[in-house]
Amino acid sequence: MFPIRDHNPSGRTPYVTYALMAVNIGVFLSYLSLMSDERALGEFYYSYALLPARLSHGEGYFGLITSQFLHGGWMHLAGNMLFLWIFGDNVEDEMGHGRYLLFYLACGIAAGLGQVVTEPLSWVPMVGASGAIAGVMGGYLLLFPRAKVDILVIFIVFSASSRSLRGSCWGCGSACSSSAASGPHPAPAAWPIGRIRAGSLPGWCWPCRFGYAAAVSPFGDRPTATRPMPPQGMT
User: Fold this and answer.
1) Which domain, by its residues, includes 110?
2) What is the annotated localization of this protein (predicted)?
3) For the segment 37-50, what is each residue's pLDDT rounded down to a tens digit?
């Protein structure tokens, strides 16, 4: 199941959501040419992705931010941007531009730290905005539990409440992960399904100080390599 749009218009222009999408797409295009060079791509990810082992040694903290704007392929990028496009504007409308940006980055950082906690010695580069977007989706579920969302199932579109998105998140994430993993240069830790599910669970949400619902996604996926390497697969 793939959500394709919601019936929940926002009251203001979502400038931050548009900017985040533009930055994600722009960054991906900036290193797209490296996809044909596995060694160069691996070195690029090693420099800018999140590596839990490096963070465990007190280095590479910038990766908690930069990794949120890297993607392992077109399907990885498209899946993340689809969810951000559909749900980001309403959460931004409720929180305000500045708070929404901080919320988005905080969710991504929390997801990265969760990966470090679960795999502190891993050298597999972690990339993707799914941790941040999972937090946005979790916030959307709390703020608009009865909002109608159009969901595509094969070639049929039907409307459902946003609560049903938990299942569709899993389906969309699985499809994007499978597509990226089968490509010529799949990336580990791209579209970690655990973080997507965690971000949509109310158990990982709490009322923030501003009176709005907030959510974090503290789980990453579980890469198994133990040394620096170019992207070779996903779990």
Assistant:
1) 2-215
2) Membrane
3) 989 998 999 999 99
